[in-house]
Specification:
Citrate synthase; 16 helices; mainly alpha; 366 residues; Citrate_synthase_sf; 2% strand
Length: 366
């Protein structure tokens, strides 16, 4: 058998949800550059049903999601305790996701309710960590507006809502990435939705996956606060053989199409929130990395600044990624369940052979 480290280039299954073939991202056949202009609810429906909803379906779907953006009382009570602990927010989300699978009649929870609960739980964790009261969803608003309201305490402008909707869509799915594949492996055992999502959150927590956006902003903060020349900072980091987060992608060798869209949003938000210095630093870094190493920014690079402009703490950035990617996770869990095939790959054993056991040979002689 051929050994491909990290399953690079290996096709392990088929999917109708999304594709990155030829370094071009599509959602159920729609180019990301086009579908990013849709509403968030339209894209959720698309990824779950592989078709866009009609007007009546969209209205009902949006209403259903918003109405279910509420947490069980016992979940809130426990969240008020665990969310104040000093652990990283992704560790809190991991526990919270598992907790959501133990409250109320979860055996009958379906994807719309699960997504609504995940968004509400993530917003609640942020509010609790900021020592702010939890907010209820406004049934007159859409999902994105409510998510922003419940996180920040402010009803977003139409312009901000539109931009953040695009951000959420761009993060909604990405073929068989590490966390999605983890969710599918769990789903192949026919375990419940919440167990699959918990596994996915654990995978996303890693700095080589979702955790990169936090590291990107740490870099920007260091450069700004210490007034370091961005190029000198990069050279020092590279000399010390440290990875520059937010650059390069296994699939997109000539640039991540999501980053192109996100760059425009980051520039606009930076201007509106007086964070131009951060964007200028990002531009200098991106130009240097492209000129010296032919590396392009990936989805995490500009997202870090966007989340900062929303007033979020950098430790919570990956949770926002999780909120968006829950859409795709649920789509893949549903698809894997329909397939009903246990994922069980083989490995290439490279350990010792020819050993034989003799009873007592390894024991200490007393």
């Amino acid at each position: 058998m051929t050994n491909s480290r990290g399953l690079a280039g290996i096709i392990v299954d088929e999917t109708k949800i999304s594709s990155t073939k030829n370094a071009h991202l599509i959602y159920a056949g729609y180019p990301i550059e086009e579908i990013a202009q849709a509403s968030f609810e339209e894209v959720v429906f698309l990824l779950w049903h592989t078709r866009l909803p009609n007007k009546h379906e969209l209205t009902a779907f949006r209403q259903n999601l918003v109405e279910q953006m509420v947490l069980p009382a016992e979940t809130i009570r426990l969240l008020l305790y665990i969310a104040k602990e000093p652990q990283h927010p992704m560790s809190i989300l991991r526990t919270t996701t598992s907790l959501l699978g133990t409250t109320n009649d979860v055996e009958h929870d379906e994807p719309p309710k699960i997504l609504a609960k995940m968004l509400t739980a993530i917003a609640a964790i942020i509010r609790i960590r900021d020592n702010e009261p939890l907010l209820e969803a406004d049934h007159h608003l859409g999902v994105v507006d409510n998510f922003l309201l419940m996180m920040t305490g402010k009803k977003p402008s139409q312009q901000l809502s539109r931009m953040f909707s695009t951000v959420m869509i761009l993060h909604a799915d990405h073929e068989f990435n590490a966390s999605t594949f983890t969710a599918r492996v769990a789903a192949s055992t026919l375990t419940d939705y919440y167990s699959c999502l918990t596994a996915a959150v654990c995978a996303l927590k890693g700095p080589l996956h979702g955790g990169a956006n936090e590291r990107v902003f740490e870099m920007l903060e260091t450069i700004k606060q210490q007034q370091i020349d961005p190029i000198v900072y990069l050279q020092d980091q590279l000399h010390a053989k440290r990875k520059i987060m937010g650059f390069g992608h296994r699939i997109y060798k000539n640039g991540d199409p999501r980053a192109v869209i996100l760059k425009k949003i980051a520039a606009e938000l930076a201007q509106e929130t007086d964070n131009q210095v951060y964007f200028q630093i990002q531009t200098q870094i991106a130009d240097y990395m492209l000129e010296k190493f032919k590396l392009h920014p990936n989805v995490d690079y500009y997202t870090a600044l966007i989340y900062h402009c929303l007033g979020l703490q950098k430790e919570t950035f990956t949770m926002i990624f999780a909120a968006c990617r829950t859409v795709g996770w649920l789509a893949h869990i549903m698809e894997q369940r329909q397939e009903n095939v246990l994922i069980r790959p083989c490995s290439a054993y490279v350990g010792p052979t020819g050993r034989h056991y003799s009873k007592g040979a390894g024991e200490i002689d007393e």
